[in-house]
Amino acid sequence: MTLTTLSNDPITHTVACNLCTGCGACAAAFPALIRMVDDPVNGRRPVVAPTMAGLEAAKAAASLCAGSGADYTTLDRKDAVDQDWGPVLATWEGWAADKEIRHRGSSGGAVTALSLFALSSGVVGGVAHIAPRVNDPRLNEAVISRDRTGLLRGAGSRYAQASPAEALGEIRSGEVPVAFVGKPCDVASVAKAKAADAGLAAKLPLTIAIFCAGAPNLVATDRLLDRLGVPKEATLTDLRYRGDGWPGLMQARYLDENGVEQVSEGIPYSEGWGRILQSERRWRCRICTDHTGAFADISVGDPWHNPPAGKADAGRSLIVARTSAGLKLIEDAIAAGALVATRTERDVIARAQPNLMAAQGAVWGRRLAMRVTGMKVPADKGLPLFRYWLRLPLREKAQSLGGTIKRIVRAKLWRPVTVRGLI
Ligand SMILES: Cc1cc2nc3c(=O)[nH]c(=O)nc-3n(C[C@H](O)[C@H](O)[C@H](O)COP(=O)(O)OP(=O)(O)OC[C@H]3O[C@@H](n4cnc5c(N)ncnc54)[C@H](O)[C@@H]3O)c2cc1C
Ligand code: SF4
Ligand code: SF4
Questions:
Q1: What Rg do the C-alpha atoms of the chain give, in angstroms?
Q2: Which residues lie below 8 Å from residue 215, measured CB to CB, with a gap of 6+?
Q3: Looking at the CA of 16, which ligand is closest?
Q4: How many angstroms is it from 388 CA to the middle of ligand 2?
Q5: Is the peptide bond between 247 and the residue preceding it cis, with omega within 30 degrees of 0?
Q6: 141 lines ligand 1 (CB under 6 A)
Q7: Which CATH fold topology does 87-216+280-352 show?
Q8: What is the pTM of this model?
Q9: 30-75 per-position pLDDT tens digit
Q10: Structural domain boundaries of the chain?
Q11: How far apart are CA 134 and CA 153, in angstroms?
Q12: Atom of ligand 3 nearest to the CA of 288
């Protein structure tokens, strides 16, 4: 079923122009008039009620949307490291002291350990994050957890569409402060929402971002399930993309025709991401300017410069403090024994994530190709995108321009995105 038509409202326009990241902030602000829908191809995207009230809601929600543009001039950046990655006060390599959290975590379980510490130390009374939907683990839902069991639902990366900022409404109306966990684009919209609403800012003292090279769609998840050998008619009960060791296997559980639970074949992260999932990242991800969560208090990723020895090694996380609140939480968590971590040099991100550095470099060329072909680009402010592009080898520079024009023509990317599907 087609759910959107080209409309004049700014949220539908952002979706239509391929600029929406699917964060969910607009829907959280106006749940009766904007709702998130799982489109198998385009991702989880907002649909605005086709009424005057819907138009007014979308106009108001547009100021919360980092998909259409983020302002990096608001960030406190002091040196070349900060210019490249957003504020980096300090970095560590470490893991959750809790063995189960470390094992189930995507990297070293640092996000879950820090979230749990924020709860147990009274910094917050809840943590907003995403978790697989119980009735369909191919999809994700925004939840607020208040204990370890709740948090463990979300441990492990979900290389799939998810809209954690849908929780903003519940956070705003709740009684206690809540921490927020999401991808960099989710956190960027949350930062805009906090800047626009002092009441929300008071309820949201901490944000944690996971590093992100791009979110694949539902089509990719279904392809993964085919590769894992899950029968089409089976009832899926669990799907893990990462975790249970570092990086861990991609593996599913399902009920067969006799109602007996089966465990699928497990495939390595390198195969699942490299051969199945990454090709279905949305176009918005290819012009993303923040893969490491510049607007967060804390960011966490993989220390790939120090790779795992096997398919399911003991996990390790790369942890970045970006604000004084983030720095304090990390230092307190280490002192309390919740997090085991060793300080590293601040320039470690470039060594750990050369792919993200290259992705950042290609953005200026890709966006120029979009402009040349009449496409709209995000109105980001305060990033030296041209300087990042100049660092690319000649071949990659040419590819970012010529290759993108070819791609735009081949995929007809100028055509307005229309959201289909309703789940
Ligand atoms: C789409 C995607 C792309 C990624 N790309 C990179 C990359 O390029 N480089 C890199 O180093 N790491 C990447 N990761 C891995 C990610 O950075 C790790 O999850 C991070 O290191 C945290 O590990 P952890 O063990 O500390 O987290 P855990 O303790 O396992 O907690 C993970 C947290 O992330 C949340 N989460 C999981 N999936 C999503 C999602 N789709 N949207 C919003 N929140 C989510 C969970 O709710 C949970 O709170 C990616 C993850 C995803 C989901
Ligand atoms: S990026 Fe977020 S706020 Fe903007 S339109 Fe998409 S879901 Fe809404
Ligand atoms: S690559 Fe950027 S836009 Fe895409 S999901 Fe990750 S943070 Fe969001």
A1: 20
A2: 22, 43, 159, 160, 161, 162, 183, 281, 282, 285
A3: 2
A4: 26
A5: yes
A6: no
A7: Aspartate Aminotransferase; domain 2 (3.40.640)
A8: 0.97
A9: 999 999 999 999 999 999 999 999 999 999 999 999 999 999 999 9
A10: 87-216+280-352, 360-406
A11: 10
A12: 2
